[in-house]
Structure formats: C-alpha cells, structure tokens
C-alpha cells in the first residue's frame, strides 16, 4: 500500500524502510545531533525553501543553517540570542562534525526576522505525515474503531509593548497555539497560530475532520453550530463538556451502574432559542462524578453506540494534549523567544514543532525504548556524543576486572573446583 500526504502527494512512504537502512549506515560515527538531523528529507525541505524563495540573496547562511542553529538552541534550552552565541563559541571545535555553522547573534536575529516562517510550517506537514505513518499501529487504550484526536489551545505570553501585533487584552499580549493531537504517539496533526485574543471556537472550522474518527474538546469549543455542521454532518464523533448555562430537555434516560462513578446517561435535546436551531438533532449527555475530588462532569457527545464508561474514558484521554503543551514548553524552549517580530516568533514555534517530530520519528525508526520526554531531556546533554541513537539507552555491560577474576578463583578453590 502506498501512503501519501494529501498536502504533499509526492512524499511516498514506501521508501521509509530503504531510507532507514541508508541512515543506519550513514550514521556510523556521527554525533547524536547529526543523526537526528539526518532524518530530515533534504529534497522535501529544499522544496519548502524554494516555495518561499528562502535562499534568495543568501550567500553564507541558508535556511538549513538557520534550522540547524535554532534546533541546537531548542535542544540545549538556550533562552536568548546572546546565550546561543556564547554556547556556539564555547563549542566551536565540535560544530563542524555536527553540520552546524557558527552564526553571530545579529545575523541570526536578521535571518529569523526575514526567512518566511511558512517554510517551517510546510516542512512540519512533511514530518507530521511521516510520524503518523510510523505510529499508525500504535495500540489504543480504548476500544473504539476510529482514530482519537484531542483538540485544545495554549497561550504563550509576550510583551505587548515589544510585540504589538500579538494583542490579548489591555497591556498583555500573546500567541495562541491551536493544536489537534493524534493520540497515537501524541503527534500534532494540525497546528494553527493566532493572536491570543482569538477565541478557541474560531479555529474549529479549520480543523480537518475525518468521518468515523473521534474529536475530544474542552467546553471552550462548545459552538453548537460548528459541532453540528463541521462534525456531526461529516459523520465524525465529538466528546466535549456541557456549559453550566446550557438549556435542554431530557428525551430518554438510560440505565447506569452508579458504582462506576457515572450518575446518568441521557438522550437530550437543546431548548435554547438559538442553540435548538444550531443543533436540531438529539445529543447524548453522560454525567460523571469524580469521587476523589467531588467534581461532577457533564459530557456531551453524538456517539450513541459505545458504553457510558467509554465516553467518560474518552474525555479523560484529552489530558494528553495538555501534556503535549507542557512538554513542548519545558523541553523545547518556546517560553523564551529569540525576537519580537511575528515572523521570528512563528518561525521559532514551528522549528520547535519540527524538532519534536524529528525526535518522535527517531524514537520509532531507531527502536528507542524510552518515553519521548525522557529522550528529549537526555538528547540535549549528549548532542555531540558519537553514540548510535539506537544504543543511547542500552546499559553498558560491566567489564570483568582482575579483582573479579581473583574472586571467582577464590570461591572456586573454596569449593574444591
């Protein structure tokens, strides 16, 4: 079977195994950083650069050089251009073997402000498609047939005086990252960057919806018109939380085992003046009480097939997208930005996403038996080590020294051997 990306139909996944074999041969003796960067499909990367004339007028430093330096800064947790510059100088003797060029901070600031951020957005789509292919058989914890996605947003604060384009409210600014996460491997399949003032529901109409799959959302995305037209009419399932002021009537009550924490399972119809027109069909509402905290949750869904416990467990899986935001902020440094222009901020976010995807791809291709957050925290400390990625977490065998040999002889003599 051929797997292709609908956005980039030329990217053929039947070549993945051949590429993996070639990478294993090429990576012998390379640094950890060079091995990760060798996963970049050069032809696809160059097409993205060419699409936006990224290397026009570039003599010494090209988009690939920018990507390498910015990735190095992300993996090592640099918090400023000055810090990047100082670290590159300190490690100047090791840069060449890893494919990194030293770029002065003033030059890097200029490049980040002028190289079109859409280059890395488009390249991210290539890596997303590759990562999804690798994680397509990842087992699901829940017994549902479709792919389960979680959709949420996270806001990264910015100084409004320095970034007037990123208005939030009053004297605050920020960028909001709307993300659709494929829970098989926690792969971000759709990322949409906006000003922080943009409401979450505004991004719902842009989410790519696939029939038969599940979309988990918080109550910030309860827009009944979008839920009906964009999800229900396209035969996709959603699970979200009801708002406290939702007006409805109960059509039918279904039996539940209250010892499981589920209080009720009902078929309802909206009765609000507008909401009844926006969503004219019936909905299912599962009320669940968390005995540990005493909190009561009302889950809304258009899935009338699976058990009420499955609906509650589906929503519980939404925490993975919150973990993704927390992880990418902590382990890939997007809390501190290396510039103030929109192009610089968007470039840094998309390069961080690309680095996340490269690590996810490396974890599968090199059969690394560690969680992604452990891999990322370790990689930053061993970037210039010449150790195969696949052997990074293999414990070394304890060598036998002379004292061990004498000890064996001693016990052998003791037992008359």
Automatic annotation (TrEMBL):
InterPro entries: DUF4372 (IPR025399), RNaseH-like_sf (IPR012337), Transpos_IS4 (IPR047952), Transposase_11 (IPR002559). One of its GO terms (molecular function) is transposase activity. Residues 28-101 form the DUF4372 domain. Residues 148-357 form the Transposase IS4-like domain. Belongs to the transposase 11 family. This is Transposase IS4 family protein. Keywords: DNA recombination, DNA-binding, Transposition. SUPFAM superfamilies: Ribonuclease H-like (SSF53098). One of its GO terms (biological process) is DNA transposition.
């Amino acid at each position: 079977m051929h797997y292709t990306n609908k956005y980039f139909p030329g990217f053929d996944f039947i070549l993945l195994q051949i590429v993996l074999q070639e990478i294993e041969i090429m990576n012998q003796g390379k640094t950890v950083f060079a091995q990760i960067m060798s996963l970049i499909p050069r032809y696809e990367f160059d097409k993205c650069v060419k699409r936006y004339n990224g290397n026009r007028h570039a003599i010494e430093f090209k988009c690939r050089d920018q990507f390498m330096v910015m990735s190095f800064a992300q993996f090592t947790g640099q918090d400023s251009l000055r810090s990047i510059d100082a670290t590159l100088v300190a490690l100047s003797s090791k840069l060449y073997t890893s494919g990194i060029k030293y770029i002065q901070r003033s030059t890097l600031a200029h490049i980040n402000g002028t190289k079109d951020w859409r280059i890395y957005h488009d390249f991210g789509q290539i890596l997303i498609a590759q990562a999804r292919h690798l994680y397509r058989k990842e087992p699901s914890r829940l017994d549902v047939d479709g792919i389960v996605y979680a959709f949420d947003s996270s806001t990264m604060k910015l100084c409004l005086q320095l970034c007037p384009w990123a208005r939030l409210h009053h004297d605050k600014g920020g960028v909001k990252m709307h993300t659709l996460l494929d829970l098989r491997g926690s792969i971000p399949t759709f990322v949409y960057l906006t000003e922080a003032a943009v409401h979450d529901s505004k991004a719902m109409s842009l989410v790519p919806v696939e029939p038969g799959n599940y979309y988990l959302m918080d109550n910030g995305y309860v827009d009944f018109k979008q839920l009906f037209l964009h999800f229900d009419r396209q035969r996709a399932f959603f699970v979200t939380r009801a708002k406290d002021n939702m007006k409805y009537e109960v059509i039918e009550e279904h039996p539940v085992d209250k010892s499981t924490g589920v209080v009720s399972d009902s078929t309802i119809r909206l009765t609000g003046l507008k909401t009844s027109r926006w969503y004219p069909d019936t909905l299912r509402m599962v009320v669940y009480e968390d005995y540990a905290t005493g909190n009561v949750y009302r889950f809304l869904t258009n899935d009338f097939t699976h058990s009420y416990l499955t609906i509650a467990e589906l929503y519980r899986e939404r925490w993975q997208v919150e973990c993704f935001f927390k992880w990418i902020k902590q382990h890939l440094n997007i809390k501190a930005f290396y510039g103030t222009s929109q192009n610089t901020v968007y470039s840094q976010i998309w390069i961080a996403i690309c680095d996340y995807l490269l690590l996810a791809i490396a974890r599968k291709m090199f059969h690394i038996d560690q969680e992604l957050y452990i891999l990322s925290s370790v990689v930053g400390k061993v970037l210039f080590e010449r150790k195969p990625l696949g052997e990074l977490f293999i414990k070394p065998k304890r060598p036998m020294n002379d004292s061990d040999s004498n000890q064996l002889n001693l016990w052998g003599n003791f037992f008359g051997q």
